Structure prediction request, 744 residues.
Amino acid sequence: MNNREYTEIILRELSKTLSAVDPLKAEEFCERIEKAEEIFLAGAGRSGFAAKGFAMRLMHMGKKSYVVGETCTPNITENGLLVVCSGSGSTKSLVNHADKAKEVGAKVALITIDPDSPIGKIADTVIEIPAPSPKSARQGNVSSVQPMGSLFEQSESLFLDAVVMRLMEKEGMDSDAMFGRHANME
Amino acid sequence: MNNREYTEIILRELSKTLSAVDPLKAEEFCERIEKAEEIFLAGAGRSGFAAKGFAMRLMHMGKKSYVVGETCTPNITENGLLVVCSGSGSTKSLVNHADKAKEVGAKVALITIDPDSPIGKIADTVIEIPAPSPKSARQGNVSSVQPMGSLFEQSESLFLDAVVMRLMEKEGMDSDAMFGRHANME
Amino acid sequence: MNNREYTEIILRELSKTLSAVDPLKAEEFCERIEKAEEIFLAGAGRSGFAAKGFAMRLMHMGKKSYVVGETCTPNITENGLLVVCSGSGSTKSLVNHADKAKEVGAKVALITIDPDSPIGKIADTVIEIPAPSPKSARQGNVSSVQPMGSLFEQSESLFLDAVVMRLMEKEGMDSDAMFGRHANME
Amino acid sequence: MNNREYTEIILRELSKTLSAVDPLKAEEFCERIEKAEEIFLAGAGRSGFAAKGFAMRLMHMGKKSYVVGETCTPNITENGLLVVCSGSGSTKSLVNHADKAKEVGAKVALITIDPDSPIGKIADTVIEIPAPSPKSARQGNVSSVQPMGSLFEQSESLFLDAVVMRLMEKEGMDSDAMFGRHANME
Prediction:
């Protein structure tokens, strides 16, 4: 098959997966973002890259956002929100992060395939994305011809970009204002 | 609008943009990947996160892949391929990378909105993605309601995931074999 | 030679190099840090790791610090200070960063072997560390049996740690207060 | 005090700490590096930056080295060596890495203040650096006026640079050969 045929398959899979995400949960997630004083993003591998892309857009919107593990990320406090992106919901380093966040009284949101996972059980808000998981017994309801966790990672990324658009709408923010905060030394 | 409505808008924009990518150029890009001894990925910001996601999948496929700027990335040689992901095609640090790669005789591939950009002019293969650019005069033919370069970054990411599927098809590789190379210490 | 003998050689080289750094320039550098609203650190390779270590300590001290190229690093403004760590003072990506910072009216400080380098010429404060450089004609006055830029990188790192101690003294800050801001999710 | 006085204090502390590191253990560590097919470095915060600096030098020497958590780092196998840099020896994410490495039959080396820590107990080689620890009951025998874990991090970094010199001696490698593998696109 050629590239166009493959992208059509991917887009059909994404359409199925994203239309199964609960819009009320998405709205709850937006509210958590807005209420938090500081927002910390955590994720491993390709899930982590999507998480970083979201952290960057939050910074563009003028919010205090951080990526767990990066150089200048401070301690989380009770006014913070930890957003964990994890297909399996059980990656050990991410479970640690979530446990520590809860210990200090911070809120935890999880974007995952498996709401019954260890992080799912302690999270304040769980966004379920029904994609297949290479690491978990739970496989979601949407099948995929893509390798490994690709469908989850893509869905997570587009879900978060839709959250950005909703936050822009709620806060009356436009692209130019955001571009003004864009890193200007590269 | 709610999250589902926003993801529908995003998917419609992606469908328009990705269906305008030249499948013959995509096939040429796959061939460059296969011929290269080592593949180096470079990109800034969110374009860079999509580039890293592709570098990781290439590693999963057993290829020698590197991200420019990461700790253990060696020098590029004449048998290497540099893949630059840059909406504007003119980010200065990326222009430097492309210049240096050409100097040592390596090949350069560019994924961009603007094939007439400085990197576009020296690249051996150019993949044009007709999304709007916040940094360039050239705006692509597909309009977007999304902020900044989001449509380009999403398109780049899904284009590269389709490239992974095509490479898997050509090389008879399956998801399980790739998962076996997945980082196992997290 | 065994490890102890090698560390003795390294410490003798460091003693010579660090005793040749101008303490008045160091004090000027501390003042620039204190005056800046936001401090941006930039460096490539091992110089960059030392720069990140300093950015982290500034965060521990309660200052707004960022590493150029990390996810949540915003635009620099006229009230910002860019600290570039570059043995040669001529690494292209770092020259770009310094140029852009000057364009917006920010201050630039450089830690380098070569004060006559391109970045040295535009920097507001230059800290000269007289170590040998693998990339520059200028070699510093202190010879080294260590490979590549190791003596510079080590000197840069300890110089910056001494700056941290001086800032703590000036601001009456202690280690416990700093530890309270230490990332608490790992 | 001025910068020069502070660097003199730091160098005196380093001299005491590094002269207390067991040279036979250091030699054992060098042998583990030489025997390993692939070397994985792991560390958090400033310990992690020193670990990355060492991973980079190993790459310059032509060894297959990786940093845990970076994009193209593959799975570790029984022929791999995991080097953990952790003052406390008990950072949870690093304990996970060490556990997983042992599970697949890889070797683990630890550079630490506390040899009796969780990672110390499972490591095949432990390098003890007797600096104070902000996170551990064990404080090392060398006191420090520096904040947080600075003395450990500096000692770790110089210890590893001495290891590089010893490996160069054993393998007859010189700085020019290493510089030839240095990243050439920045």
About this structure: The first strand of chain A starts at residue 38 and ends at 43. The radius of gyration of chain A is 16 Å.
